Description:
Blueprint: H1 3-14, H2 19-22, H3 26-41, H4 48-62, H5 65-77, H6 82-104, H7 109-134
Helix pairs in contact: 4-5, 4-6
Amino acid sequence: MNRKQVYAEIEKTMGVVPEMFKSIPDDSLELEWELFKRVQLAEGPVPNKYKELIGIAVAAVTKCRYCAFFHTEIAKLHGATPAEIEDAVHYAKATAGWSAYVNGMQLDFEQFKREVRQACDHVRASMTKTEKAKG
Length: 135
């Protein structure tokens, strides 16, 4: 498709041709639009609401105000509540904080992996016991 055709498709889909698409060079515009549709708009294994909550979390950590605005508005469009949005941002804050700490302290990665697996095994066993007690 040429630029005019891509713009027509974008406008049909979004009701506007955002400036971010207008700044893309001719030789990659169609590819970028196709990728945007597949990744940002199409339903996939992860429902769009949850993809957008992930996008909000990533935007919070990368401190991109454009991304934070975009993903927040699209998450709302897909039914995200203010509590879900806050939870995604809080989770991002906690994850980024722990990432800074364990990386900065240069903890032993092999030990870290063993401990995470041990914790998961423990929780899995607890879940199995709970299920047996119920059933």
